[in-house]
Amino acid sequence: MNTVISVATWVRVDLGQPTARGPRRGIKQPVLSRATRKKYSHQFRDTRGSRPAGHSGHGRAFSLGITLAREHTSGQPKLTKVSASDVGDVEISYEGGQNGRGNGDDTGDSNGGGHGGGGNGGSGGEESEGNYLFLLTALPVFSEYSQMLKDGDTEGLEGRGNADEEELDRATMDEDEEYDDENDEDDEDDEDEDIDVGRGKQPRGSKQPRNKDNFICESVLATNLPTGPGIPTKSELFQGLNARKGAELSKKDLSDDLEQLLNTGLFANVDANVTPKHDGYAVEFVFREKIWPQVQSFRVAGSTVLPKEIEQEVLKAARKSQNCTVRVLATAKNIVEGYYTSKGLTFGTISHFDGMENGEVVAHVIEGEITRVQSVFVDENLQPVPGNKGVTHPRVIQREHNFQVGNLYNVEDAKTALRDIFLLQLFDNVQVVPKPDERDPSKVQVDILLRERPTKTAETELEWSIAPGENGRPDLVSARPGGSVFFEHRNLDRWGRQLFGSISTANFLQPQEDLGFKLEYNHPYCKGDTDVDRTSFKAAAFNSRKLSPVFTGGPLMQEVPGVWVDRAGIKAGICQNFTRQSKCSLGAVLEEVTTRDDSGAVCVFGAKQLSNGSLSLDGPRTTLSDTGTDRVIFLQGNAMRDTTKFVNGTQVGARDILQVDQSVPFWLNGPIFNRSKLELTRFLKVLPENQKSSQPPPVVVLHTRAGHILGNCAAYDAFTLGGPHSCRGYTVGELGAARSFLETAVELRIPIPITLSHGFIFWERCSDLSSSSTLSGSPTEFYRRAGKGRTHGAGVKLGPVRAEWCVDCNSGTASTFIRFGERF
């Protein structure tokens, strides 16, 4: 059965300075002039049967008061009629439930509860029993007004007032409390203003409304508004209202605003007072908080992940209060939603409460269940591509994120998706955009915006070497240009398979003299899309040349002729990813190693310069064979456990790396060896992390690295000591080459204010463990190197650059280095 509930709405517009107080809780009553009372006497109606006191005296003003109180029924009220006279009652009718309109006293009908009828300056009765729907959430972010502002509908905006564009922008901002301090001065100024509402006049200097029955809103104020954590703020409550600075308002607009505020369920009553200001009128909303019995039980409805301990925690906190108020419910809201936030479930919120009347409170939650996951390809302007057709197959994106229909949206899944999809190197812009489902706003749709990179690229570089000439001026070392050519295909067959290639030479005119190349193929998910380990297959062909640090002189030796190591071969292997950072791989390498001198000729022995200027060619052997060329095949395994993360730009966590190379002789005289290396690093926070600070935390780094070679050990595969990734006070290989080694380091990283970076002090030590003599020809002794060393120093890190001051403890000297990248 449909029943109409009439709610008496009373709009009070104070157009003058009231001088007396009415009987209703001390609210100001207007002083009407004799002519005004006579003119509008037929429109004033007092539902209590008597006129309020205080309507004597002189003053050019009248009052139109609004007091809106809502009946709560078992069904949601439906707005069916809004009517208003020029001055007097505004009656708002609702459909649903029994008729609950009061008769002017403090009681209501027991079927539906109700408010007493409103009078001029009077108020209705208190609510009787009924089913309450308590909405403890902020008002909708996108109101009709803000939506028109967003869409650029200036015609619709102008319909709300005659403010210019700048004032309309300011209308979306919350008003400061400075207007409260101006009320008294404004009232005194308004005494001298001639106001005739019947003729539609406004205060001097105000903008004229388009409708004579409307007025311009200058400010919006709030009185008796509860505050505290979890309670909607003034700006949140007022965000969707019609009453905004610069807006043209009617009595219907105010009625709608009052209804919207009352629908939040936060307040037992909301009044609106309208008083004149310099350039319009100030709208003041007066709130009265609801009070219920003490909470006896608490339950969360609609949750799938919330533990029972959270409900017990809420109940314990609620029973500390004798009554159930907005603040008690706000505390419950903070506890429940705090749990969701801590788990990354950012859409987990309380939609409303009920059961406060009998103390059995039920909190209804929405958790943000995912109803759709869609990849959206966009162009350079981030606009969707027609037909949503991209080069990349949709499955390539789907296998890189954890979003599943039916699961809850988690912000950590979004971060992981951003990282993993971007690391595919197929896209230069990736965005994860969650949005409410249009059919069910309590659920979430996830759009992944993707802007694809060019699938095919090629680059060419030319370079000429310059050195000081005879007169000290720069001169070309050679007119023949060197350089490199690079090409790649990032998305073979649309499945993210990649092909890379590069060719480099020091002489493009005769590249056969010095040609280096690398061709690499990468096949991700080689075991299928459902492979949880993300197994990938990689194959490469290579030809490279590097200067060997094994054949390097010590600090007391003159310049040593360099030995270049050429490596040409192929390698292939598979890699499994347990996490994004922890992985293991197994592969096979077949290579030919040739050692050459600076002229490019094959050399079998190292050399050094004697005191008489001649070269000694009886140095350590460069290869295992007598020809200067070794052919080797070996298996290579790597395992890395990495739990580090970045906290404000500084690594924190642990990293362990193990590498083992085992030779496989494919003929009887082939080399047999086992080369293993272990590296352990710990990044320890000195102080707890400060969530409110953007400075990196102080960190202590502990590092240990060790290695050993069994069997045949060629000099080019020996461990080298010294350098930016070994012992920082020395150059690469300056301390020696060894079959076994041990390295330790300690570093303290201290944040530097303002720079968002850190400075550091360090101590490092490394040793060959007296194993260098077991190498063929003992290169450490031959080149007069120490075989061990210590260093300490300090530095600062700015972005990828490290500036370090290091002390060589062997010689007692210090040096400054500028290096790139991380030490550990």
From TrEMBL:
Keyword Membrane tagged: yes
Biased composition (Acidic residues): 174-195
Positions with biased composition (Basic and acidic residues): 152-173
Boundaries of every Toc75-like second POTRA domain copy: 298-369
Keywords: Membrane, Plastid, Plastid outer membrane
Gly residues: compositionally biased ranges: 110-125
Stretches the record annotates as Disordered: 17-60, 92-128, 152-213
Cellular component GO terms, alphabetical: chloroplast outer membrane
InterPro entries given in the database record: Bac_surfAg_D15 (IPR000184), D15-like (IPR039910), POTRA2_Toc75 (IPR057355)
Protein name in the entry: Surface antigen variable number
Source organism of this protein record: Ostreococcus tauri (Marine green alga)
Source species taxonomy: Eukaryota, Viridiplantae, Chlorophyta, Mamiellophyceae, Mamiellales
